[in-house]
TrEMBL record:
A Pfam family reported for this protein in Swiss-Prot or TrEMBL: p450
Cofactors named for this entry: heme
Protein name: Cytochrome P450 CYP73A100
Tagged with keyword tRNA-binding: no
Any GO molecular function: trans-cinnamate 4-monooxygenase activity
GO term, biological process aspect, one: lignin metabolic process
Species per Swiss-Prot/TrEMBL record: Cocos nucifera (Coconut palm)
Classification of source organism: Eukaryota, Viridiplantae, Streptophyta, Embryophyta, Tracheophyta
Length: 511
């Protein structure tokens, strides 16, 4: 059993000892699970459930080890919350596809309630009318091929600017640099141009500094395990007051930042231009929906908040992983450069020629397979009691699909721990990562079904483009004196990124 101290702040220890005493009086046995036919799992105690045994960090690797013990669907009781973990492609297809409606809702927690205004957004809202409306309204301005065609040149422009900066940066070429910050600026520009027709001048642009600070603090507070105790055990919630106030304070300043600097500006532009105005960027479409009475002004701001989180961080993490793996696998890198040279000759890497580069696409897929940024997908929830794999899933359970394990289980993949893009051109050549492609429930870094990632249509070309452009222009190597880039992971409630932002040296290749 884990030390309670590591799970709780010190001030909670007195009430905790009282609970522990109460709990020790009445251990429930695993028989109680079989009597109500819920999935197997460790024996739980009242009030705490399994929390003291399993701890806070319920990451994809830990949940895999539990699946090996309890099976492909198991249940953990975390205080007042039930967590159901699915680790098998057939059951995953039940949750995401066959019973997609039943399991199509989202659980929230005390912190996500604050960051989503109790589900006024799209990503974390319950399955129902509001979600359907939000997803429909967001699709046209963000998630269609027309959007890709409209913006691909601006993406390429932002990426070519990164290449130019690196070509002019002797230090990055010789000693190396942390590339993350420059890629972050590039991605903010890609997304903010699409969203608001706005961009940041440089990494020291005051608005860029504010936006990145607000968003990273939001992610830190939301993805931390620090607040689990108050979320799982309602009676401990008063101890969480300080944390929740910090979240509320951040959220109100952050939303005001988006509103005052971006949304209001677009409102003014639209009001001034009147009918002559053509809808220039995504938020103009969203404001039009607000004007038509379809959504509220709060919904508008939560759409902006969702894109800031869902679009930028996931894509940035994937870029960092891809680059790190290419540095650690120089043969893969050389082969990729060879493909680009053979297929494109002097032509630049552009969105319109990505389809001619199968090895580049395999590199992107292999990165997402080995390092899924959302390894457990965004948690799902059943609004009503449901059946899964012959078990009863209690109403309101948090249901996670261990997508990382489905993509890394040696029973289903040849040497899954190896970074080997070739697998997607050989034994796994039928496994797609394309919009509307054939679904393989072993490989779904973007999820599948109703709540799957609509951003896949943007993320895949953006990833392919930046990786292709960097490899074409530079030899990516570790900094002097370093052999391998550290690719250890750091996870949160459901996020996964590289633990140490890599220093990479970019040796220019003669144009
Ligand atoms: C490499 C990049 C990305 C990865 C790996 C990724 C992954 C995911 C995953 C796993 C989900 C949850 C699926 C589920 O619960 O079944 C999701 C949801 C979502 N993603 Fe992405 N995503 C990426 C990029 C993007 C981008 C670029 C955008 C927007 C421009 C975006 C917008 C969303 C939204 C709005 C949802 C919520 C969908 C819903 O609840 O209906 N994502 N993403």
């Amino acid at each position: 059993m884990l030390a309670a101290k590591s799970l709780l702040p010190i001030q909670s220890l007195v009430p905790l000892s009282i609970f522990l005493f109460l709990a020790s009086l009445t251990w429930t046995t695993s028989n109680s699970r079989s009597s109500n036919n819920t999935p197997p799992g460790p024996v739980s105690i009242p009030i705490f459930g399994n929390w003291l045994q399993v701890g806070n960090d319920l990451n994809h690797r830990f949940l895999t080890s539990m699946a090996n013990k309890y099976g492909s669907v198991f249940l953990l009781r975390l205080g007042a919350r039930n967590l159901v973990v699915v680790s098998d492609p057939k059951l995953a297809s039940e949750v995401l596809h066959t019973q997609g409606v039943e399991f199509g809702s989202r659980p929230r927690n005390v912190v996500f309630d604050i960051f989503t205004g109790n589900g006024q957004d799209m990503v974390f809202t319950v399955y129902g009318e509001h979600w359907r409306k939000m997803r429909r309204i967001m699709t046209l301005p963000f998630f269609t091929n027309k959007v890709v065609q409209q913006y691909r040149e601006t993406w390429e422009e932002e990426m070519d600017a990164v290449v130019e900066d690196l070509r002019g940066n002797k230090r990055a070429q010789e000693e190396g640099m942390v590339i993350r910050r420059r890629l972050q600026l590039m991605l903010y520009n890609i997304m903010y141009r699409m969203m608001f027709d706005a961009r940041f001048e440089s990494e020291s642009d005051p608005l860029f500094l504010q936006a990145t600070r607000f968003n990273s603090e939001r992610s830190r507070l939301a993805q931390s395990f620090e607040y689990n105790y108050g979320d799982f055990i309602p009676i401990l919630r008063p101890f969480l007051r300080g944390y929740l106030n910090k979240c509320r304070d951040l959220q109100s300043r952050r939303l005001a930042f988006f509103n005052n600097n971006y949304v209001e500006k677009r409102r003014k532009v639209m009001a001034t231009n009147g009918d002559r105005n053509k809808l220039r960027c995504a938020v103009d479409h969203i404001l039009e929906a607000e004007k038509n009475g379809e959504i509220s002004s709060e919904n508008v701001i939560y759409i902006v908040e969702n894109i800031n989180v869902a679009a930028i961080e996931t894509t940035l993490w994937s870029m960092e992983w891809a680059i790190a793996e290419l540095v650690n696998h120089p043969t893969v890198q050389a082969k990729l450069r060879g493909e680009i040279a053979d297929v494109l000759g002097e032509e630049p890497v552009t969105e319109s020629n990505l389809h001619k580069l199968p090895y580049l696409q395999a590199v992107v897929k292999e990165t997402l397979r080995l390092h899924s940024p959302i390894p457990l997908l965004v948690p799902h929830m059943n609004l009503e009691e449901a059946k899964l794999g012959g078990y009863t899933i209690p109403k309101g359970s948090k249901v996670v699909v261990n997508a990382w394990w489905l993509a890394n289980n040696p029973e289903w993949w040849d040497k899954p721990e190896e970074f080997r893009p070739e697998r997607f051109l050989k034994e796994e050549m039928d496994v797609d990562a394309v919009v509307g492609g054939k679904v393989d429930f072993r490989f779904m870094p973007f999820g599948v079904g109703r709540r799957s990632c609509p951003g896949i249509i943007l993320a895949l070309p953006i990833l392919g483009l930046i990786v292709g452009k960097l490899v074409r222009n530079f030899e990516l190597v570790p900094p002097p004196g370093v052999d391998k880039i550290d690719v250890s992971e750091k996870g949160g409630q459901f996020s996964l990124h590289i633990a140490t932002h890599s220093v990479i040296a970019f040796r220019p290749i003669a144009a």
